[in-house]
């Protein structure tokens, strides 16, 4: 009788222990879930005013849109998006909303109706093509990782590239530049700045420069490095004697071409 009583009591203790463990785990799970929900960021909604840009965003980050078409600016798919954003020829007038894509590395937005672009939050950007728009200014002071910039066929009269030391490729053809300072762009390999109003251009510090096209400007002074050998230089034939460094470049075997891409023969400056 005592043995049976002990056996029953032992079984009851095991059952009680299991119940305690079960409820204990349940409590811990609920606490963990509550903490997780507490630490989760609530959705932050933002307006995307341009309907064409909004339509494109739905194709690359569909999970960032609610069933009632609201855009969640802090959605993980937005803040972690680090691929190409290709929106050429989509009749876009505003890129408002691009600032939420803080991991974005490459943007192609040429041939649209853009008047301004704010890329100050896109600090990971390495490539930008904003050609064939209506831009009058472009601030790239926060885009220190930028390596390639295509900005031809706009209406920009000045550009500050002092904060872009990694720039390797720059195309600013057919703008309204009067001045272009590339002193701090020591990694520059290709520079295209034809059809502007540049008066003075000094590339003597750009020792990595491989191609320079600067014809159809108002150049009175063009300075190239004494150490430049592999440069392919394209200028207006009329300015070949505007600075001694150009003749010195030609005399040491530099590749000098005119505005028609014809090689300029050896010459004498009076």
Outline the biggest β-sheet.
Answer: 9 strands, parallel
Task: Give the low-confidence spans.
Answer: 1-8, 22-39
How many runs of DSSP E, i.e. beta strands?
A: 13
Radius of gyration: 31 Å
Q: What coarse outline follows from CA principal-axis ratios?
A: elongated
Count of separate structural domains:
3
Helix content: 10-25%
In order across it, which strands form the biggest sheet?
3-4-5-6-7-8-10-12-13
- The SSE string, one letter per element, is HEHEHEEEEEEEEEEHE
What oligomeric assembly is this protein in? single chain
Q: Approximately how much beta-strand content do the residues carry?
A: 5-15%
What is the residue-mean pLDDT, rounded to a whole number?
A: 89
Going by helix content, strand content and strand pairing, the class is alpha/beta
What separation lies between the terminal Cα atoms?
128 Å
Describe what you observe in this structure.
This protein has 270 residues and is an alpha/beta fold. It has three domains: 1-40; 42-139, Ribonuclease Inhibitor (Leucine-rich repeat, LRR (right-handed beta-alpha superhelix), Alpha-Beta Horseshoe), CATH 3.80.10; 157-270. Helix content is 22%, strand content 14%. The protein is built from four helices and 13 strands. It has helices spanning 2-39, 51-60, 76-79, 244-251, and strands spanning 45-46, 71-72, 84-86, 106-108, 127-129, 148-150, 169-171, 190-192, 200-203, 211-213, 221-224, 232-234, 255-257. It has a nine-stranded parallel β-sheet with strand order 3-4-5-6-7-8-10-12-13, with no helix packed on it. A two-stranded antiparallel sheet has the order 1-2. Strands 9-11 form a two-stranded parallel sheet. Helix 4 (244-251) links the parallel strand 12 (232-234) and strand 13 (255-257). It is elongated and about 75 Å long.
């Amino acid at each position: 009788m005592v043995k049976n009583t002990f056996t029953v009591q032992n079984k009851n203790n095991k059952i009680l222990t299991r119940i305690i463990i079960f409820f204990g785990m349940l409590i811990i799970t609920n606490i963990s879930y509550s903490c997780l929900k507490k630490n989760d960021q609530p959705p932050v909604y933002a307006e995307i005013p341009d309907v064409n840009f909004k339509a494109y965003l739905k194709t690359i980050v569909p999970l960032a849109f609610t069933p009632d078409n609201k855009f969640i600016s802090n959605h993980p798919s937005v803040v972690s998006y680090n691929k190409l954003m290709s929106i050429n020829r989509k009749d876009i007038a505003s890129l408002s909303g691009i600032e939420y894509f803080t991991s974005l590395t490459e943007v192609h937005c040429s041939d649209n109706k853009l008047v301004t672009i704010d890329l100050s939050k896109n600090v990971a950007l390495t490539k930008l093509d904003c050609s064939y728009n209506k831009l009058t200014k472009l601030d790239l002071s926060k885009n220190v990782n930028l390596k390639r910039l295509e900005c031809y066929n706009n209406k920009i009269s000045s550009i500050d590239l002092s904060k872009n030391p990694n720039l390797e490729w720059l195309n600013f053809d057919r703008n309204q530049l009067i001045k272009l300072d590339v002193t701090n762009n020591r990694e520059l390999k290709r520079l295209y700045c034809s059809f502007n109003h540049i008066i003075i251009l000094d590339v003597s510090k750009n020792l990595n420069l491989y191609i320079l096209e600067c014809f159809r400007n108002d150049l009175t002074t063009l300075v190239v490095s004494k150490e430049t050998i592999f440069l392919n230089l394209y200028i207006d034939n009329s300015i070949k004697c505007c600075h001694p460094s150009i003749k010195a470049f030609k005399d040491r075997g530099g590749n000098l071409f005119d505005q028609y891409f014809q090689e300029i023969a050896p010459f004498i400056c009076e």
